[in-house]
Design goal:
By secondary structure, the protein is an alpha/beta fold. The chain is built from 14 helices and 24 strands.
Amino acid sequence: MKTNFDLVVVGTGSAASTAAMECREAGWEVAMIDSRPFGGTCPLRGCDPKKVLVGAAEMIDGVERMRGKGVAHGATIDWSELMAFKRTFTEPVPDGTAKKLHEAGIHTFHGQASFLDEETIQVGDNQLTGKYILIASGAKPVELPIEGIEHLTYSDEFLELDELPSKVVFVGGGYISFEFAHIAARAGAEVHIIQRGERPLKNFEPELVDLLVKSSEENGIQIHLNTAVKSIEKMGSSFTVEGTQGEESFKLEGDLVVHGAGRVPEIDDLDLEKGNVDREKEGVSVNEYLQSISNPRVYAAGDAAATKGLPLTPIASMESQVVATNLLNGNQRTSNYEVMPSVVFSLPKLSAVGLSEESARDQGYNIRVNKIDTSQWYTYKRTNERYAMVKIIIDEDKDQVLGAHLLSREADELINHFATAIQFKLKTEDLKQMIYAYPTAASDLGSML
């Protein structure tokens, strides 16, 4: 069956929903397609369920840190109960999303989308012709050149485990591996991270990453650097991971091997060539208005688009708003990628926003770098946190924050204050005069500047 729409949206997540809803509110006929349950990665198999598990791990970590300081040891994670609690957040999402879309008058389709031509999307037996098409299909795990990749468990599967195996191996040293590794370790598993290069978490400041690695290892997570995985072999109920570590051979057994080596745009199955939609490694090739450079009917947002944006939910939402504006009012709005706070929800947490020290120097700024070990500050000493550090990059000429990098249990909330400072170009002199509630982590900001 062939149906005409003003807008056909591939995806139902953060990059898709804002544009779809705003265009529908403007009276457009809108269709949305998803090959998976409606709702997108973040609420179903990403940020939200992960944070539920992190919350439990934080509680265990807090008890461990305060053992002998007035808190008795004894708390443990009951994995099956924790997963049941997690599902109270994820299970209502697909039906809730579908209901919201239907109530808005948006037509929904389940199935794999693919282009038939520049204006038509095939999904099942349906052919959807769109005046405009938005590709917001998200990302998927990168395919690894490993023999036996069929034995890998992926992040969405990890978040559905009814039982946590006793020995878990993570392939890749990205944020997914570190977050899940800290959860699994606090739940009692033996945990290994295998990193191909000499440093994990490459997008974060090296000094802070080194401290996180040290803290991770002290909490029982074994990190194997400069180690390349060549094969994964199933041996009964367990797996053997083999590769090389430098010039030596490497071999490790585990009950579960998890993919944590990064993600790529999920656009391979869209038959973009038939739609005259150019692509590159980072996603659909778009101009500053998020419009396809080769097919003006097509826009792209979120992880599926080749932009300067980080693969983060708030960035996907922002880009969806940009697309909505440009669809409804003509191309006039561009994305602002100057402020993109990101967090690794490990224990302690690692966060960053703005420029790194290296980037600031490369761009010719006259900078002051405040690198401070804050572990002995009251905020962290009172809960016996051994590792805490900040690294603030300041433009000396304008007295403004260019970048902020934090490692601590408070890093996820504190980074937002620095994001605000960068967004509104606040002077550090003014930030120091701000009166914060005390004693709170935010009350330390003046001392960091």
